[in-house]
Amino acid sequence: MFGADAVHRVTQARARLLPEAVTLGERAVTLGVYRTLDGLAPLWNEIERTGARASVFQSHGWLAAWERTAAREDGEVPLVVTARDCGQKLRLILPLGVTSRTPARLAVAGFLGQGHANYGLPLVDPAVAGSIRAGEIRRLLAAVARGSDLDAASLERQPAHWDGRPNPFAAGGIVSANDSYVLPLEADFAALHARLFSSRTRSTLRRKTRRLAGHRGFRHGPAVEPEQRTRLLDAFLATKGRQLREGGIADIFAAPGLAAFYREILAHRCGTLPPLEIVAIEAEDGIGAIALLIEADGRRYLLNTALGSGPLRDASPGLVLLTGDIERAATRGCHAYDFGPGAAAYKAAWQPEPVPLVTTLVPLSTRGVPLVTAMAAALYVKRTIKRTPLLWSMARALRRGAFGRSPPQED
Fold this sequence. Notes:
Blueprint: H1 4-14, E1 16-17, E2 22-24, E3 27-34, H2 41-48, H3 60-69, E4 77-85, E5 90-101, E6 106-111, E7 123-124, H4 126-129, H5 134-148, E8 152-159, E9 161-162, E10 165-166, E11 174-175, E12 180-184, H6 189-196, H7 199-213, E13 219-222, H8 226-246, H9 256-266, E14 277-283, E15 286-296, E16 299-307, H10 317-331, E17 336-341, H11 345-348, E18 353-355, E19 357-363, H12 368-386, H13 389-400
Parallel strand pairs: 6-8, 16-17
Antiparallel strand pairs: 1-3, 2-3, 3-4, 4-5, 5-6, 5-7, 8-19, 9-10, 11-19, 12-17, 12-18, 13-14, 14-15, 15-16
C-alpha cells in the first residue's frame, strides 16, 4: 500500500510541471499537466479527501471510460491540470479535453467529455474555493495555454454552485440556452407526490399503470441480469436514435465511440464509478420506455430516456417509469433527482428547481480572440431562440420539416 507521499511522488513523475508561478485563492501554486487519466485515480482520491465534490461526470471512473472509448473519435485529447500549494497540498483538479476547431484548426480546451455530460465542473479544495478570483482563473488558464499551445477555453454547462459551494470557474460566464432541473427529494414519497399532483392526476396514473400491467409479459423495473442489461442498452440505442432522427436531430448514438462508452460503463469496468442502471417498461408486444441512470453522492442522475412506438405507448409508459424511479430514489435515501439540462413538459410537471448553467469563454492566444467572439455571439443567439417560445417553436418546425411530421412527444 502506497502512503500519501509515495502516491504524490508517483503521480508527479508522470506530470509535466509548468514553470510559471500562479496563485489560487491567494496561495502560490505549482501547476502540473497530465495527458492521460491512466493511473490518476489516486489524485481524485487525494482531492476528494479535502471535501472537494463535483458531478459524476467529473469522476475519475467516468472520465477514464470516456478516454478509452469515445474521446479519440470525438477528436478530444485529455489535458488534466493540477494545482499544488507550497506545502504540496493538492488544491485543484481541472479535467480538460482539447479539441481542434476548424477552419483555422485552433486548439480549444473544454471540460473533458463536455459534449456528452450534463455538467462541467472543476474539483476544488473547499478551503480555497470561496477565495478564488476570476483574474486568478484567467492567469491559470493562460499559464496552461503557454505550456500546451491552447488558443481558447470554452468551459460549458457550469452551475454557479455545487454541493452548497461556489464554483469559481463559472463567475462572469455567459448564461446558457438551457437550465438544468433538480427535484429535491423527501423520504415520504407519497406526501411529495400528493403535494405536486392532484388526486385526479394520481388516479389517472394508477389507471395507466393498470393498463400497462395488463399486457402479456409486462415488466417494469431495473434490469438486473447481464444479458437483460445488454439487450435493453441495445434497444435504447436503437429507439433513441429513431426518436432523434424523427425530430430532425443527428443521431449522436450512432457514433461507435459513444455506444462503446455506454457499453463500457454498463460493464462496470471502472471500480470507482457507480454502476449504470437501466430501467424499462416492456412487454411481449414491445418496449414502452427505457431510462439510463446513475447515482452518486445521494443524487440520482437521469442520463437519457427513450420511448417506444408500439402498443404500450398509449398508456404513457414514460410517465409511469419516471414516477416509479423517482419513488425508488426517494426510498433509497437520495436527496435529489437530477433531470439534467433542457426544458421539457415531463420535467416541469414535477416543479423542479431550475439550475442556471453558464459557459466561460477565455481567449488564450491572438488567434483565439476572433474565435471566442464568434462563439460568444453564437451562444447569445442560441439562448435568445431557445428562451423565446415563438422563435423556438419556429426553429423546431424548421428542424423537423424534412420529415413531414412531428417527432414523438415525451410523456
